[in-house]
Amino acid sequence: MELPVLNETPAASAGGCSSHSCGSSDDQLGHLSDEIRAKVENHPCYSEDAHHYFARMHVAVAPACNIQCHYCNRKYDCSNESRPGVVSELLTPEQAVKKTMAVAANIPQMTVLGIAGPGDPLANPERTFETFRRLSQDAPDIKLCVSTNGLALPESVEELSKHNIDHVTITINCVDPEIGAQIYPWIFWENKRIKGVKGAKILIEQQQKGLEMLTARGILVKVNSVMIPGVNDKHLAEVSKIVKAKGAFLHNVMPLIAEAEHGTFYGVMGQRGPTQDELMDLQDACSGDMNMMRHCRQCRADAVGLLGEDRGDEFTMDKIEAMEIDYQSAMEKRKVIHEAIAEEMHSKRAAKAEKAASHADEPKLNTRPVLMAIATSGQGVINQHFGHAKEFLIYEASPDGVRFMSHRKTDLYCSGDDTCGDGESVLQRTIRALEGCEVVLCSKIGYEPWDMLEQAGIQPNGEHAMEPIEDAVMAVYKEMAAAGKLDESNAEQRATA
Amino acid sequence: MALQIIESCVNCYACEPLCPSKAIFMSSKAGHFRINPNKCTECEGDYQDTQCASICPIEGAILDANGIAVNPPGSLTGIPPERMAEVMAELQAH
């Protein structure tokens, strides 16, 4: 018996509606028009499918900010940190263009250049737009994106629409100024610092106005929200509803990152981030109203590479200065590679759709869902050694099929465990990150981690190396079902164990 | 009458374009932005509030003519200074 894969709805599904995908928002792009799908299908940040194949980069040209968020500390800069707002090297627009072209020539699957900080890109309009202007001229095959807190968005829409920018991300954490005042201590507005509810109200109005102006012009808008337990967690479902009504095409709920050593308000005051379960529950609650995004990696403002990896060290300014880039020939090479990837993605999608259709009439299993963790370095297959995985993709298998849930980093904030260590080994930390999963699928795994995983109640499995992720997850799920491991009574046993 | 930017400046550039007197410059010697005291007017006649001190995100980085922080500890982040001291001491003890 074969079960369908939920995440992937074929592009040509407009005519029919299979019982498995209808009403499901698990395919985050499934509800989009063909036109929008075509725009985002090679964008790793917007398409869960694309993020296995295509890479992105951020250039840190925008240091200034016009607001303060309680999860940000403008003093912080650490090369071991991986989270938004952190960079190691500020670039001039000229340097940023050079870096972008160097990366594009060396990592041909890089399709997207974003400006995301470390401050707010639209609070640095000259530096941001100079970078966009030059890139749309010199490297027309690169998609340009920008993310913003929204305060200066309405005044920037005109300029944004002039460039090759068809995606904008707005971080919207609330639509209620009272909640906003607990997230944003101040904004800088019309030559004054405005604190508290008054400032938050202006920010919210500007964000909503900017969102409406962008969608009216046909510019795609993704909304990011930081989930802050006890502050806006109950409120975000409403935010999701409102931004969708105003035309945002994707909502990305991200967990708060707050540690005392970051020196942020939330970190120092002991505000906790959400658990994996709380985050998934909220994403599920919002998904009734909105296409949810679950594969966001909360990248640094100078990240380079596939999501989840950072090759920024290969492209520091001193290394780039030494590179000779012939962009014309690089562009030709890139075109060939992009077409090959698109073809591979399309054929995989078509194969999945065909498989799902051919098994549509089979009886449904009556078993409980299972979370599985996957070690992969891309291409949508299980191809990474357990010990090399810096993150795991989490999939849920259930009688309804397989769906991507989230990713979990094993080194969430810091890779310098000698300096920041609290005595917990990398392996222990990894196992803790996999809490709630019952299976780990990887290409290979050593004896020691095998034993430790088993002790933690997680079954390691290296038998599906190089297989497509969804196929392998479903195969393992069916093995578990056949072995009687998935009866509800077993689930109760697990819960009380 | 002039404000002063001191070494805790993080070079975020936010203040520089706002200055009505073009008094703010990047000092390569100091390694951070500074204010030319001969040009600074404390925004008198231009704005009600001093612009650099109204956008600066770093507490204590801008001093007034008396050498007192325009944005004292806790005023921008909302973190009570004693809480910050406590947490920092705890982190250092590890």
Automatic annotation (TrEMBL), chain A:
What pathway does the annotation place this protein in?
Cofactor biosynthesis; Fe-Mo cofactor biosynthesis
Entry's Gene Ontology molecular function annotations: 4 iron, 4 sulfur cluster binding; lyase activity; metal ion binding
Enumerate the cofactors the protein uses.
[4Fe-4S] cluster
SUPFAM superfamilies hit by this protein: Nitrogenase accessory factor-like, Radical SAM enzymes
Domain Radical SAM core: residue ranges: 51-289
Q: Identify the keywords attached in UniProt to this record, alphabetized.
A: 4Fe-4S, Iron, Iron-sulfur, Lyase, Metal-binding, Nitrogen fixation, S-adenosyl-L-methionine
Give the transmembrane region(s): none
The record's region (Disordered) falls at 1-22
Q: Where is the composition biased (Low complexity)?
A: 11-22
NCBIfam families, from UniProt?
A: nifB (TIGR01290)
What is known about what this protein does? Involved in the biosynthesis of the iron-molybdenum cofactor (FeMo-co or M-cluster) found in the dinitrogenase enzyme of the nitrogenase complex in nitrogen-fixing microorganisms. NifB catalyzes the crucial step of radical SAM-dependent carbide insertion that occurs concomitant with the insertion of a 9th sulfur and the rearrangement/coupling of two [4Fe-4S] clusters into a [8Fe-9S-C] cluster, the precursor to the M-cluster.
The family annotation for this protein states:
Belongs to the radical SAM superfamily. NifB family.
Question: PANTHER family of this UniProt entry?
Answer: FEMO COFACTOR BIOSYNTHESIS PROTEIN NIFB (PTHR43787:SF13), FEMO COFACTOR BIOSYNTHESIS PROTEIN NIFB-RELATED (PTHR43787)
Q: What is this protein called?
A: FeMo cofactor biosynthesis protein NifB
Recorded source organism is Methylomonas koyamae
UniProtKB/TrEMBL annotation, chain B:
Instruction: Cite the Pfam families for this sequence.
Output: Fer4_7 (PF12838)
The 4Fe-4S ferredoxin-type domain covers: 1-29, 31-68
Q: Which UniProt keywords apply?
A: Iron, Iron-sulfur, Metal-binding
Is-annotated flag, keyword Metal-binding? yes
Q: Do you know which SUPFAM superfamilies this protein is assigned to?
A: 4Fe-4S ferredoxins
The answer to whether the entry has keyword Nucleus is no
Cited PROSITE patterns: 4FE4S_FER_1, 4FE4S_FER_2
Which GO molecular function entries does the Swiss-Prot or TrEMBL record give?
iron-sulfur cluster binding; metal ion binding
Name-wise, this protein is Ferredoxin
